[in-house]
């Protein structure tokens, strides 16, 4: 524990308590509501603006308590958010406090300090942007539409701050010589290269018909129509995305070749299509609905038609989320990140033939860090557009996600290419990967 040479203040007592339960010195500075400060003279200061910040952590001594304190503004981070999120064992140890610990006396002493500093009070109300607990079956059409709206209908101008002119909200493909993560041109190039990679994997060409499931702001549809001369139907459950995408299509003069709909994938009935792209959408499908999703896509494809499914995957199963953290309560309600094996199994059981899968884990880490840089550079505009709570939510989410993809045993992302074989078993694919990639 850190040696103190002055009378204990709120900050020194608080830092001592945290170090007691963590078991190691923390390389941070702590500032409290009374102006007191303690800790290493580091470039990272954790600011407890009021006693309520401590009560939030006490009532939810895990990831959710920290998230609520930060999102609400009761706790501030003065410095690099990545440094706080990578402090060894911090959130993990706080979430596993137990009176059965070998250091039980230290834990009890620290807990008593927290209680005294927190003061009396009921559990603080969650921040207004937290998703209320919902009842009923998951992944109904109405509930999925509500979940998608929560995440995407927060303002197109807000998303543009960190997505940039491409308006692509998925992992880029960093095929060119990397520059700094904050170089907007490099990020934009990575997104364009990703769209082009998908088009080439799908074998798109003039006269073909593409279905883009979860079309977002229309970027894939526009790229495919402009560069590969295909007709595209793009579907989304977000009305704000649809409005923006339709305006882009009209501005590009491509209304005769691109149709953007507000539509659930389960309601698409105008197949067959030569190709289907699903980019960053199947995370919303869920384990229980995955077999139906795979069967629906199979039915919408022509024989020898290709499917490209671009989706985050977990290294271990995380079905249904843990219901107790940032992603479940603030970002993707009802989202489920499944192992790659579950997706491949569902596709094969539906009759699709999986021909290729490509992992892009490091690519997503680069993309997320570039988004963080852009959001921080546009912070005042972000707060003006969506308010402080939501802006802090997105910054925390993007930063934590970047770290999740940088660690090899947490998250990854795959592009899975599958085909619907013809009745005679033909896939329609050239024999080698180099040939079908073009």
UniProtKB/TrEMBL annotation:
Per its UniProt record, what InterPro entries does this chain match? CFA/CMAS, CMAS, SAM-dependent_MTases_sf
Q: Which family does it belong to?
A: Belongs to the CFA/CMAS family.
Q: Which organism is it from?
A: Rhodococcus oxybenzonivorans
Q: Which Pfam families does the record cross-reference, listed alphabetically?
A: CMAS
Q: Give GO terms for biological process.
A: lipid biosynthetic process; methylation
Which GO MF terms are attached to this record? methyltransferase activity
The protein's UniProt keywords, in alphabetical order, are: Lipid metabolism, Methyltransferase, S-adenosyl-L-methionine, Transferase
Please identify the protein, giving its name as recorded. Answer: SAM-dependent methyltransferase
């Amino acid at each position: 524990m850190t040696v103190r040479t002055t009378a204990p203040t709120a900050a020194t007592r608080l830092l001592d308590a945290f170090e007691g339960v963590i078991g190691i010195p923390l390389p941070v500075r702590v500032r409290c509501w009374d102006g007191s400060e303690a800790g290493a003279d580091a470039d990272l200061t954790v600011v407890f603006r009021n006693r309520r910040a401590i009560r939030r952590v006490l009532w939810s001594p895990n990831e959710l308590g920290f998230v609520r304190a930060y999102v609400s503004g009761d706790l501030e981070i003065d410095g690099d958010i990545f440094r706080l999120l990578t402090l060894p064992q911090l959130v993990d140890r706080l979430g596993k406090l137990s009176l059965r610990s070998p250091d039980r006396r230290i834990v009890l002493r620290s807990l008593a300090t927290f209680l005294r500093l927190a003061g009396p009070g009921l559990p603080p109300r969650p921040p207004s942007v937290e998703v209320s607990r919902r009842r009923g079956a998951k992944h109904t059409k109405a509930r999925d539409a509500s979940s998608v709206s929560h995440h995407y209908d927060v303002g197109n101008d807000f998303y543009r701050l960190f997505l940039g002119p491409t308006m692509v909200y998925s992992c880029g493909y960093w095929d060119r010589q990397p520059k700094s993560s904050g170089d907007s041109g490099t990020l934009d190039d990575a997104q364009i290269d990703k769209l082009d990679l998908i088009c080439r994997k799908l074998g798109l060409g003039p006269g073909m018909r593409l279905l883009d499931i979860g079309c977002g702001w229309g970027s894939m549809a526009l790229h495919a129509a402009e560069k590969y001369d295909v007709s595209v139907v793009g579907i989304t459950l977000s009305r704000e995305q649809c409005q923006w995408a339709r305006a882009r299509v009209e501005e590009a003069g491509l209304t005769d070749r691109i149709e953007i709909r507000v539509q659930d994938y389960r309601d698409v009935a105008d197949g067959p299509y030569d190709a289907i792209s699903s980019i960053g959408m199947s995370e919303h499908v869920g384990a229980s609905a995955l077999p139906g999703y795979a069967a629906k896509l199979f039915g919408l494809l022509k024989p020898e038609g290709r499917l490209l499914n671009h989706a985050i995957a977990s290294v271990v199963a995380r079905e249904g989320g843990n219901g107790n953290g940032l992603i479940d309560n603030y970002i993707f309600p009802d989202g489920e990140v499944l192992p790659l094996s579950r997706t491949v199994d569902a596709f094969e059981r539906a009759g699709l033939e999986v021909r290729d899968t490509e992992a892009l884990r490091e690519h997503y880490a680069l993309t997320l860090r570039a988004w963080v840089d852009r959001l921080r550079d546009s912070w005042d505009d972000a707060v003006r557009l969506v308010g402080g709570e939501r802006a802090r939510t997105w910054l925390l989410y993007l930063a934590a996600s970047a770290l999740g993809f940088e660690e090899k045993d947490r998250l990854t992302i795959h592009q899975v290419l599958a085909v619907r074989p013809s009745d005679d078993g033909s896939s329609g694919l050239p024999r080698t990967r180099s040939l079908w990639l073009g």
